[in-house]
Every structure is written in C-alpha cells, then in structure tokens.
Fold this protein.
Amino acid sequence: MNSYLGQFDQRANALEECLQILAGGNRPTAKSAKIYIMQGNLKPEDKEKIKKYMINQVDSRECTLEKPKNLKTKMEEPADVAVVEGFIGMTEEDSHKFYQKYGFAMDFADLKFCQNYFKEVEKRDPSLTEIKMIDTYWSDHCRHTTFLTKLEVLDIKWDLLKKVYEDYLKARDIVYENRKAKDICLMDVATIAAKELKKAGYMKELDESEEINACSIKADILVDGKPEEYLIMFKNETHNHPTEIEPFGGAATCLGGAIRDPLSGRVYVYQAMRVTGCGDPRKTVEETLPNKLPQRKLTNEAARGYSSYGNQIGLATGQVAEIYHDGYVAKRMEIGALVGAAPKENVVRTRPEPGDKVILLGGKTGRDGCGGATGSSKAHTSESLTTCGAEVQKGNAPEERKVQRLFRNAEVTKIIKRCNDFGAGGVSVAIGELADGLVINLDKVPKKYEGLDGTELAISESQERMAVVVAKENADKLVEFAEKENLEATIVAEVVEEPRVKMYWRGKLIVNIAREFLDTNGDVKNATVEVVKPDEEKSYFKPEKIENLKEKWEQTITNLNCCSQKGLVERFDSSIGANTVIMPFGGKYQLTPALGMVARIPTLKGYTDSGTIMTYGYNPYLASWSPFHGAVYAIVESVSKYVALGGDYKKAYLTLQEYFEKLRNEPTRWGKPFAAILRSLPSTKRIKNCSNRGKR
C-alpha cells in the first residue's frame, strides 16, 4: 500500500534527505510503501474486508509487489488554460450543466453573478482559472458566506430568546449610528457584544490591524523583572470534513492549519488543545454507516495524525478531550485550539506599496492542495471517500517548524510588511489578499513535480507555505535568511498601483480580475430565521426519576464520557518546550484530568513567570436539545474552569466555534446557529457588570 501521487510522503522525504546528506550532490528520488501480511485460513471475502478497513481510498492505494525499474514519474504536459468559450452567453440550462460539471462551492446565483459581471463589465469570456479562483475566493471557508448572509428574522417562538434578541437590537443602536445601514447577519450577532464593550471603553488590550490572522491582544509581561509588551495570539480551527474522510491527514492538518494563522502573525505558537467529537468507537465494522469509515478507525487515526504533527513540529499539547455522542456518526468534530506569543516590537505591520515584492516561503506546490477551501465548504456525500482525495493534504511538520524558527528572528520579522499563510485558496487567496494590486508570475512558484497547469498552481493550498510582502530593497535579505533555515524562498509577485489581480503562466495572462469585483463576495445571500422553543418534555434539565440507584450509578460510570481518557492523552506530548505549568493529569495518583491547560510564555531572552490559561466548555447533549442553552453553558463552563485555574475573569477572552448541519434554505435550521450565537450577549453583559463591580 502506498500514497497517491502528489501526496506528501514523510518516509520517502526523510530517506531522500538522509541520502543527500550522506552522498552529497543533487537530492535523489525515493518512494515508500507499507506491506501488510495476512495469515491464517482467510476466505477471499475476509481479505477484501481487511483491505477495505486498512486502505482508505482517499489517500492510499494497493500497489504491486513487483520491483519498479525506476522511480521516475512520467507526467503529462499540461494543456494551456482555456477560455470558457460562450460563458457570458450561456442559457440557463447550459449554465446549470456547467455548474454541475465542475462541482463549484459557490452557489448557482454566484455563477450567474459572474456571468453578468464578465458580460457587462469585462465584456469577455473568462478563463477557467479565473472561475476556479473566484470559486475559491467566495467559498464559505474563505469568505464566511454563511455568516455574512443577510437575515430576516421571521419569528422567534420563545419569550426568553425574544428578550435576548431585543438586547441585540439595542446594542446595534449603541454601536451603529444607523442600525438599518448594517445588515443583520450571524457575523454581526457574533461580534456585536465585543463592539459594544469596545465602544464603552473596554477591550483596550485588543490588537487591531488590516491583517486577518489569529485573535490578538496586547499584554505587559515581566521579563527579568522589567515590563515588556507582548502580543498574545489565540485561535481555534475545525477540520471536520477532512478528518471524516482521511482521519490521519485531516487531524494533522487541523493542527498545522491552526498553527499557520498565528504564525503568519509572526508569533511563536507554544501550546495546543485538542477537543474532538466521535461516535461510539466500540461499534463493529458491520455497524458502520455506508460510505463511512468505522468510528474506531476515525478516532485512532485522527489521534495519531494530530499527535504526530504536534510532536514533530515541537508543540506541547496541553489538553486532549474526546466527547462521545451519536450525532458525530454523521460527521466527526475535530477542533484544534492554540496560543502563541511574541514581543510586540518584533511584529511590524505596514501597508504594501507599489514596487514591493511578494516572496513565497516554505513548501512546494502540488495537486494535493487543490480544493481544500471549496471542499471544506461542501456537504459530505456518499461519493466523498472516493472523490475528495485532493482536498486533504499530508502535513509536513518539519517544514513548518523551519518557518517558525525563521519568524522568531527579529531581524526577519521587522522587514516583513504583511504576511499571509497559504491556507485555503493557495496563491489566489494567500497572495491575492496581501494588496489591492498584484502581478503574480505562476511560473516562479516552486513545484513538487512537473505537469501542473496554471489553475492548479493558482489554487493549490499548503500547510507549510507563507506569502510575505517586503520592500524591494529587502527581498534579497529575506531570501538569505530563509536559506540559512534551509527554506526555499522565491519572489513570485509584485505589488502594483492598479487595483487588479493578474496572474501570468507560460508568459500568458490567465487571470485579470478587478479587486472591487473580488471583494463583493458574490451575489448577496438572503435567508429567513425562525427560532423554535426547545421541547420542555425532552428538556435536558428535566428531573429524572431514579428507581434503582445502583443501576443508575453503574449506567453513569460505564458511559463513555465518564471513562478515563489517559490512554488517549498519553499519545500527545505535553512537556515539549518545558513551558507547561500543569500536566494533563494530577492528583495523588496522577489520574485526575486537569480543567484546562496553563503555560509559561516563552521568551528568547530573559525569564518570565507570566503565563496563559486556556479552557473549553461544551455539552453536546444539552446543545442538541437547545443550541442557546448549550452555547450559554459552554461559555459559563469555560470561564468557570478558567477562574478555577487561577485566571482573572476580567482578562478572559472568548474564541467561539459553531457546529451545525447544512442550513440550506430552511428557516428553522437557520434558527439553530442564530440562537446559539445570541448566547454571547447575556454572557458578555454579565462579565461587563462583574468588571464594573470589580472597579468599584
């Protein structure tokens, strides 16, 4: 069994590096495969069942045992990027066929929006690369389409939530001069409380900039007894879809993807948390849903992937928790959260100017990064296991570690004007978001192998690449610093005055799109919201009549969510970097799980005893009954744990994550995240009131 062509193979990569070190010269080519030996009196159907369990079609294939004559891979010469002839004149029927053929993440209304733009403004047919780039740009993953959808609140059949909704409308009156000038959307509901606090004079520690990286706050810490201003960054990220179809790679890149956001903010990530949701892993293979991986394989492989990446990059995992609920059989939950820090003076953020150069740092481009952004914005279907292989990368932790080392050098970070990670969208988004006007040369983009066409080079993402903007006179200096870390650094683009994104491939202009059009985010989305009061007969809080206390005790302590997770937790290293303050398990017998994770902030020079605390809160049983109650109690639980660990509630910051089914155009479905996100209002107001009492 070996990996598909294009997927990063760590064993082969390590062998190539070792051979080059030993022999010198050019880097040789190596390939690897795993051999499984099946013994015993096995019937053909038994062998097929074993193969089906062992070989995940998304990332691996069964290979021949014959010794290859050579390791050269013959790649077909890519065809020129074609113009989609007749695109602006397509009939409704032809447009639907075109939409279905390419399986776009944007909806059909967005495609029609594109047709109208190219017809009325550009007055030409676009290239396929342009359409794929727009599809990537406007995917839910990159542009938060769901959260920015304009909402009409149709009905709230619940007095409690009506009161909270009225508080939200009052907050809008305080924050905005004209409440009608700002659309009601999930993003506004989620951020209004923070905006209100900021307007009231709170949240002065918030670090704001034009860069869109992780949440960032300013903090004064004592280094060798002297105050020094630091940036503390934190974030959480889900990789539910990738982990569902390829658990090792999906979970590994969940961590790698989470790291790259604060890393692009030029801070050093020093501690991570992993919270996952899984079905019962004790279920047999026969009980697995059609076209799904067994829950046991999912939970084991995902743990192996996340811990492998963390242990290799050198990141302490301070807390690991897995929640078991039947709802996760449909799709697994995989969340990575982390904390990073750096001296504030080392992080320089200035606006790019015409003539500045864009440098691509780190890993090379391959097909394995195509479709990650659009793929994560799609629903899981029965074909996902066989058609979504390119949407899940194999993370290269040692390469991202080199970027970490580079960005800890103040001489490097002080010449970087702006930085973006090559997460969702690849060149299109990573470089495309850096400045309004850009000319990108795709021929300069380093490749893993030949045969990639312009479209693939434009949209392939990667865990281990960064795009940085530097002044023209500093470009060579940055390349030299990168070479010292054994990092590839290539100038691939230039900032220009004209606000358009242009891409050249083989000397031809294959993308030429106005920034103003890209920033529209496509056709305006509208949805209606209806909130239904949760069924009180099925209330999570309803007292349960216990007939047999002994039986109830046995039932409770044998519940998977009450079992010790020490075996799972010990797969992860919590001691890397020697900054972890409390271990995952404590108490006399080292069996009591910690409430959260605590770490000392790492400094390159001097010593500090300042640290950070991160906790989580969530109850899927409560949340499935009432998203609003589940969300409120998640905040209460996490802040309570934070305080119990010694944190000051006046210095607590929240990072929130939603997890719901496909909303479609169903008002009651939209009502679920709407109710859950409204939870931040009462919680934040209570914290504000507590802060006022503290001041008095």
